[in-house]
Amino acid sequence: MARYRGPRVRILRRLGTELPGLTTKTATRRPTPPGHAAATKGRFTKLSEHGMRLREKQKLRFHYGLSERALRRIYERASRMPGDSGRNMLTLLESRLDNLVWRAGITRTVPAARQLITHGHVRLNGLRAKTPSQFLKSGDVFALADKCLNREDLRVSVNNPVLDPPPGLSRDLDKLSVTVETTPGPDQLPIEVNIQKVIEFYAR
Known about the structure:
The chain is built from nine helices and five strands. It has 204 residues and is α+β, with helices and mostly antiparallel strands. The longest helix is centred in the N-terminal third of the chain and has 15 residues, at 49-63.
């Protein structure tokens, strides 16, 4: 399944939660699920066990802007790593380049960070970043290309980030450069998700 490119607030309404990586908008004005029947009832219907697992998985997929195939690959990689698979999965998601560009406040959403990377505007350790899905580690440095340093939209974003950047990212606002001292951990996740339900969804 390809990445979602439709109305973003509709996803917030469907999942019943805010996803800051997907959009800066909220569903406070229309908190009910989409659809005439749901609006008439004015509430969320009771979910089955599978439905609850699917909803938690979809939170991760839409927040990080991933295709179903990409998210499953991350789960498979996390399950092969030592330790708790759920925490491993969240650690991998948080260490992706596109997520860290967003968490550093350079862009307003994860899709905007991905676009910046794919257009060749991000340098990783001095070289042009290859893909948004690269996993970063302590000591890595990413920065914007010189031609982007005076872009007004990026300057506005970095000076007024959607979320406070995690303490492990050291930012140089003049050069729009970020040094990864430590990648954000599972306890610093900006959304509420039951990761055990996600693991159960893929392990079924």
